[in-house]
Design goal:
about 0% strand; mainly alpha; about 375 residues; single chain
Length: about 375
Amino acid sequence: MNQEKVKTPLLRRSGFQSLIASLLCIIIGLLIGYIVLLIINPAGAGEAITTIIKNFFTYNKPKTQLKYLGSTLVKTAPLIMCSLSVLFAYKAGLFNIGVAGQYVVGAGASLYFALGLGMPWYVCLIAAIIAGALLGAISGLLKALCNVNEVISCIMLNWISLYLVNILLTPVKEPTSPYTFVLSSANPDAVLPSMGLDSLFNNNQYVTIAIPLSILVAVLVWVVLEKTKLGYELKATGFNKNAAKYCGMKEKKNLVLTMAISGGLAGMGAALLFLTGFEQWSCTQSAVPATGFNGISAAFLGGLNPIGAIFSSFFIQHITVGGAYVDKTMYSAQISDLISSLIIYLCGFVFFFKYALNKRLDQRDEKKAALKAADTEEGGENK
């Protein structure tokens, strides 16, 4: 007889649980943000929180909405890559808090190849990936050969990377400002091609192939992690490197490879932003870009799923940009950062909510099983 496959209840499915937990984090974050706005200035609290949520929808004209939607997507592409970097390492049992540093060297390599060496965009993109991968591999080697905790090595490398990139890009900065040359003027060939996407967003010149590329990479990461032997070995090594070694897997090689791939993803993320010309690098920058750290939140808000990371990255960028439209006469310019940081902070509780939900479901199932057993026993006595 063919046994029928038992279907997992919807509430027991990991993907559905991640979705519910993420939505709960977002709702709680917005609620707390609204309460903070009420405390600061109750008169404009409702309009302010609505404005943050609406973002580009604050404009009335559809063409203007499309243009600023394009700008949000431009900033979303690097965040997707950083979230993929975090979750790829995390799936293999590593916490890559060095995504910010790998993002920085990716920016440095792409801009130096573009402005200093005059290379086309695809060479600059490859250079950024290699630079990020090499920096990630350093942490991987220290972990594999010397058992140095990757968190410690990554944090140290973040700051080393920042100051090295500042030095590297100083020769290609504008004489009268700390910012690098405008990419579109200095080397138009280094700008990522738009492939006609700019016309879809009301001729927003910064909308390029960066957006579809980041989505394509997300799908590729999912395939590698879930459908390939390599992904299985990397995850097995992360779960228990001693067991992986016993099974014949090269656990040290896998650790280094994981960090290299993770770093390459972060480096590519930086190139997908700076090669659009949307931003210039400041050679006097004294703090690593927040995009690398926001990638951690986007990864967890997306349930550590590459496809979920696409939507979570867009949402985080959406509310961050939306905060810029808040009335500055009522609230300070930092209020948008406060709201977004509240939601980002709550992203860390996604797994807590999933744990609480599973615990509640287990208790419910135990009660049902106990009642069923009692009914069965009572029926037997009656016979």
